[in-house]
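Sequence only, no structure available. Ideas?
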Amino acid sequence: MDLYPSLELKPFPKFSRPEIYGAFSVDSNLHYQHGMEHLKYLNIPKKVDFDLNNGDDSYVEKPDVDNKINHLLKFMTEHDDVLRSNQFNFVCFRGLLRLIMCTPYEYREPWIILATKFKGTIYLCAQETQQKKEEKLRRTDRDIRFMRYGHKFENYVFSSHPQGEAPGSNKQVVEAEEFCTMFNTKIGGMSVLYGAEIDGVISKDIVTTLPELKKVPLVEVKVKRRETNERQLQNFYKFKARNFWCQSFLVGIDKVFVGLRNDNGIVNEVTSYTLKELSDQAKEKNYWHGTVCMNFLNDFLRKVMLDMKDIDDPYTVFKYQWDVTKCDYVSCQKICDKSFCFLSNEFIQFMNNLC
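Reply:
I predicted one. Tokens follow.
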């Protein structure tokens, strides 16, 4: 059965508040690191005067390497209790879930999601579309400068120690370095384990253990242009606010801190939006509804489970595709080709030995 995105305002699906399951870090070479090496602490200076144009000379972009979901698989092999219990229906990254949630309102950016079922668990992996590859090739110096603003802003408001000062433009920005938290939740009764890059936490004390991490508020920060007219404000609530809401809702963050920049890349104010504020403003204008986003995510996951009901083979992949310029439903293609397998050989071997 084809899946059509619906804007119908149905009741909000059952959704349990996400719980932290574990954490890991990623180094500058995209290597998995056990522990909280790159955890940061929110530390907004009293005087906000940030120039986001500084630091380009030392800026290190993330290597253009497709790691698929290897970091998640590495986490799981380190925590084989996850695998032995087989308690999760799905494993994926938060970004993939956000992508699905936004689909009912997405008319510009297509997506491709690969799914495979192995030992009872369905693994989901986003695949780069041709459109995204072409967009990368067309990027101008101005596009790259704007893309770097978010990482540079983080340098101004996060420190590596609770009592430390944020490094500002003095510290080199290394895009690849990340702190990733693993979450588990249930969506419509389906259990999901997913990894999400977390910007930082709010804490007066250093956090070194999982129990400590579970007690402190997680933080999401963004930077955006300060709106100067009604049309710009409408665009914010119609598009960016939706992404802010979906991204934060999935990890239980209730407030987003936002740096407001001018056209010259200068930030003179940091404000905040609660998820309720973002949602209320969008609903008032009928731009988007969180219940529509969550219901489509629920519908998509249910479809995948149904499609793969009688299949359990890492070398059988289902390709789901959304491109509104070609059709108005999510297409599905079953692929029996080992070259499409996105689970690492090491993980498959580990699982076979384990079970």
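The radius of gyration is 20 Å.
Hope that gets you unstuck.
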